[in-house]
Design goal:
Layout: H1 3-16, E1 33-36, E2 39-43, H2 56-69, H3 77-81, H4 84-97, E3 101-105, H5 108-119, E4 125-129, H6 134-143, E5 146-150, H7 155-164, E6 170-175, H8 187-196, E7 200-204, H9 219-223, E8 232-236, E9 246-250, H10 252-261, H11 263-266, H12 273-287, H13 290-309, E10 321-327, H14 329-341, E11 344-345, E12 347-349, E13 359-364, H15 371-382
Parallel strand pairs: 2-11, 4-5, 4-6, 6-7, 7-8
Antiparallel strand pairs: 1-2, 3-9, 8-9, 10-13, 12-13
Helix pairs in contact: 2-12, 4-12, 5-6, 13-15
Length: 383
């Protein structure tokens, strides 16, 4: 079969299974109000948890740095792409996460690919929660390590797998906050197991940083875990921080090793210095955003109370990620379209992002939402 007929058949199959995806093009900044084709939609699909993506002071900082450092970095960090704002942001992130050093990556996906493929290979074993983000699974495949997937948040199952492993090195990788469920990994128990079995522990805290813990320190701060407990921390800068990019934080030796061995870092152009400059300020905003976090958690509680009153099938979650379980992909798509017709944007999540027959609406709350927005959403869901 030639290429085009094959592609056509594959796309048609996606459409028949209600798995076909399309992009929405909106005008303006990323806020809780999106403008699409001349209409305004209430946005419940963004990961801009603290509402910093459209913060005027951060935009002004980026504009100022743009005039000084130019549009693009022009090269990878190890060539000529590493500019003063990159260096200063790495230091600021190290301080924020209470670690010796950090290392910038262009995306969280690349950070996960980079660190896991650099640390382990076919002689080693990787232990992963079954509902980890796709980037961690792809990193596992790239590493060629022996992959063991334990049941979601099931520490006993993880303990059994660790006890039976004879691999040279053992690495446990887990989301801190699971991106499609909104629940939090039992990190204290996992850290204890890692020490017991002489395993390394890596936490992808893309959805925890800025939201959980003292001063927004994330899942590790929530559980009061140190670098000794969790030597490898991955964080993203395009969610609660309102910008773009990602980082790995840990001891200086880990960062030095990744500079030498992490291929997505070595062979990728650095993020624009103007973005790095704005993100330095964004870290300050996150640390000082207790009022935004308090408002956000009030919205979370209000959503759960109203959803339970209306007997909506939601998953247990104390984070801004709230999942309304629909199960069938066609019904999830239909419900998402019905909300869109009422001016509300909520994405239908289907396989392969989530397991088959576990389709859902993934609702994300922002500190820029108001209680009236949540009430409007609940009303539309139950109309």
């Amino acid at each position: 079969m030639t290429l085009n007929p094959y592609l056509h058949a594959a796309i048609e199959q996606h459409k028949q299974q209600h798995l076909y995806r399309q992009r929405l093009c909106h005008d303006g900044a990323q806020t809780v109000q999106l403008h699409i084709d001349g209409k305004t939609y209430l946005n419940f699909s963004s990961n801009d948890y603290l509402g910093l993506a459209s913060q005027p002071q951060l935009i002004a900082q980026a504009q100022q740095a743009l005039s000084q450092y130019g549009l693009g970095a022009g090269a990878a960090h190890l060539v000529t792409g590493h500019q003063r704002p990159h260096h200063d942001l790495e230091q600021r992130l190290a301080t924020f996460t209470q670690r010796q050093q950090s290392l910038l990556f262009s995306t969280g996906y690349m950070a996960n690919l980079g660190v896991i493929s650099a640390l382990i290979n076919r002689h080693d074993a990787l232990f992963m929660d079954k509902l980890n983000h796709a980037s961690l699974l792809d990193a596992a495949l790239l590493s060629r390590a022996q992959v063991h997937r334990y049941r979601h948040r099931d520490v006993s199952h993880l303990a059994q797998l660790l006890a039976h492993s004879t691999a040279r090195h053992k690495l446990i990788a887990t989301d801190g906050v699971f991106s499609m469920e909104g629940d939090v990994a039992p990190l204290a128990d996992i850290a204890a197991l890692a020490k017991q079995h002489d395993a390394w522990l890596m936490v992808d805290d893309a959805h925890g940083l800025g939201v959980l813990g003292n001063k927004g320190g994330g899942s590790l701060a929530h559980f009061e875990l140190s670098t000794v407990d969790v030597p490898i921390l991955m964080g993203t800068l395009g969610k609660a921080f309102g910008g773009f990019g990602a980082f790995i934080a840990g001891d200086g030796l880990l960062i030095d090793y990744l500079i030498q061995r992490a291929r997505p870092y070595i062979y990728t152009t650095a993020m624009p210095a103007a973005m790095a400059s704005a993100l330095i300020m964004a870290v300050d905003w996150v640390e000082q955003a207790d009022d935004r976090r308090a408002h956000l958690h009030q919205l979370i509680q209000s959503f759960q109370q109203l959803a339970n009153q209306k007997r909506l099938p939601i998953l247990a979650s104390d984070t801004p990620i709230q999942a309304v379980m629909v199960k069938q992909a066609d019904k999830a798509v239909a419900l998402s379209r019905r909300l869109f017709q009422q001016g509300i944007l909520v994405t239908a999540i289907r396989s392969p992002t989530v397991p088959h027959n576990s389709a859902r609406l993934r609702i994300t709350l922002s500190a820029h939402h108001q209680l009236s927005d949540v009430e409007r959403l609940i009303g539309a869901l139950t109309a």
